[in-house]
Each structure stands twice: as C-alpha cells, then as structure tokens.
Specification:
Structural class: alpha+beta
Largest sheet: 7 strands, mixed
Number of domains: 3
Order of helices and strands: EEEHEHHEEEEHEHEEHHHH
Helix content: 40-55%
Number of helices: 9
CATH architecture of the largest domain: 2-Layer Sandwich
Shape: elongated
Number of strands: 11
Distance between the termini: 37 Å
Strand content: 15-25%
Radius of gyration: 25 Å
CATH superfamily of the largest domain: UvrC, RNAse H endonuclease domain
CATH class of the largest domain: Alpha Beta
Length: 324
C-alpha cells in the first residue's frame, strides 16, 4: 500500500456503488449501507462510498479523517488504476446479476457445463460454505440458485457439531451427509479446493450413490477444482460462468458467516452459568447477587449460596475450569 495507507477506490456504475481497495473487493453491491464498520478500513470505504454516491464520481480515500483527494504519486495512481479496473468489473458482474436475463443465465450455465464436463447445463445450483473462528461456533451455509436467480427462501444455515469445528473436510462430510439424502441439485459447489471436493464426493458419490456434479471454488485465484483433478480450471475474469459461480458462492458465504456471527455474539452475551446443568436464570441471578465470581469461587463458597447446594457447586466449578 502506498505510504502504508489503506486506499479505497469507489466507483458508481448505473446507480450502484462499487467499493474496491488495493485491487481487491472490499464491499460488494448493496452492502455499503449495511457494512459493519468494525475496522478503519471499512470506515474509509464507507466514507468514500458516500462521497461517490452523492457526487457520481470516482473517489480515492486516504487515512481516516484525512478526507478524500486524488492520486498524487505514481504509486497511488497505479493503485487507483488497478482498483478502477476491478470496480468496473464488479459493476459489470452486478449488472448481470441484476438483469436476471434468461438468455444470459443460459449462456453462463452452458459455459459452466462445458468447463465441468456436464452433459446438461445446470439449472439448480447449490453452494456450501463453512464458517468458524478457530474451530468455534462452526456453521454451514447453503445457497440455492435456479436459472441464475437466488432462491433465498431455500437458503439454509446449519449448526455443525463442535467436534468438526477445526476440520473443514470433516465439516463438509457432515454437511454432505445432512443434505445428501434430500438433495435436488444439478451441481453442488463447495467453497474450497481439492480436499473439500474430495470430502463431499466421498459422501455424495461413494456413500449415497448420487450422480450430482461437484466442483470447488477457491478464493485465492477464484479457480475451479474438479473431483480427482489436482490442477484447477482457471476461468477468465470476464467469464459469465465465473460470475454465476461467484454469485452463488458469495450467497453461501454470507449465509454461513451470518449464522456464525449470530451464534458467536449470542455466546458472548450469554451467562456461562446457564450452560451448567441444574442452573437456570433464577439461580444464576442469585449467584451474581451474592457477589461471588463463579469463575474463581471454590465449591464451598458456591455451596453456601441459598439454592446452590454441594452437587451444583461441583458442576459449576468443573464447568468454569474446563478448557475453552
């Protein structure tokens, strides 16, 4: 990044705000207004987006609080040029997604079928993604597109068993076992590479005997991985087939990460005492009112609180001292 700053290029195309920073998508179509401004980078992008939306111009945002200005140095101009190219590409992709042109969707599906070696173009496409934080609160997201159109009422989020939280392959195998028996898709895309693809085909093809096509899309280069092939398929950035894949992948990712964040936030605000067998809201409140810290209290201290008792005190101490 030039001078250590986090630059953001924002472009408006057909009324759609496109935000791009250092050549990589920062916020996608429609997400600027709802972005969680959890770090300064997103704050910069949102400020630039508001400016661009009101002025209809492309803006370059510098450090937070420094306002907006045009590129000055050659390095800054190079970053801006790269970001502008990517913003224009995002705009073209968004235009395709918004149009829902049946002919465009058919062309994209036919191209994708040729790439994947499918006899017929996929009509119903599912994408699966896994989201977790260091193995905790794992969630699976499933997005469904039919004829290139998102069927949001069919999107699903699943709570993955905690034992699979740090293992994406095991999580994918679990999800395949969950979705497989009722699966009604022409193509299943998985967010990942050869390992994730193999995990899913092991279940869908080998265990369940399904003939559904499976492919993986990896984020690093947006390459496609096919079962049994180590070398990826690289599609042109202007390929309608890639846009189709990216659209359903992004929906699956958003579904998974939204479910993960919801669960994570719930756990952060939930009283850990409520996870101890035999402790309900009233008893937890009584323990808190007694001024005892359950994370450091001894069994004797807890047992002295009316309503707790020896056995419950033992369970509380065991739960509070458990790792993780």
């Amino acid at each position: 990044m030039p001078g250590g700053a986090a630059w953001a290029c924002v472009q408006v195309h057909d009324g759609v705000v496109m935000a791009v920073h250092t050549g990589t998508a920062a916020l996608s179509e429609g997400s600027v207004g709802q972005a969680q401004a959890s770090d300064l980078q997103e704050v910069r992008v949102r400020v630039a987006a508001q400016y661009a939306a009101s002025s209809g111009r492309t803006a370059l945002a510098a450090e937070a609080g420094a306002g907006l200005r045009r590129a000055r140095s050659k390095d800054e101009q190079a970053v801006l040029a790269l970001a502008e190219r990517n913003a224009a590409e995002m705009a073209r992709t968004a235009a395709l997604r918004r149009s829902h042109d049946p002919q465009a969707s058919a062309r994209a599906a036919n191209e994708l079928a040729g790439v994947l070696g499918m006899v017929n173009a996929p009509i119903r496409v599912e994408c699966w993604d896994i989201s977790h934080l260091q193995g905790r609160s794992p969630r699976a997201g499933v997005a469904v597109h039919v004829d290139g159109v998102a069927r949001r009422e069919q999107f699903r989020a699943y709570k993955v068993p905690e034992r699979h939280g740090g293992d994406d392959y095991a999580s994918m195998r679990w999800l395949a076992g969950r979705r497989g028996p009722s699966l009604d898709a022409d193509l299943v895309l998985v967010d990942g590479g050869p390992g994730q693809v193999q995990a899913v085909t092991d279940v869908l093809h080998d265990e369940l005997g399904l003939a559904v096509a499976v492919a993986g899309i990896a984020k690093r280069m947006e390459e496609l991985y096919l079962p049994g092939q180590d070398d990826p398929v690289i599609l042109s950035r202007s390929s309608p087939a890639l846009w189709l894949v990216q659209a359903v992948r992004d929906d699956a990712h958003n579904t998974a990460i939204s479910a993960h964040r919801k669960d994570r936030d719930k756990k952060l605000t939930r009283d850990p005492l409520l996870d101890v067998p035999g402790v309900g809201p009233k008893l937890a409140a009584a323990i808190r009112r007694a001024g005892v810290d359950p994370s450091t209290a001894s069994e004797a201290e807890l047992a002295s609180i009316p309503g707790v008792g020896t056995h419950t005190a033992e369970r509380i101490v065991a739960a509070m001292s458990a790792p993780g």
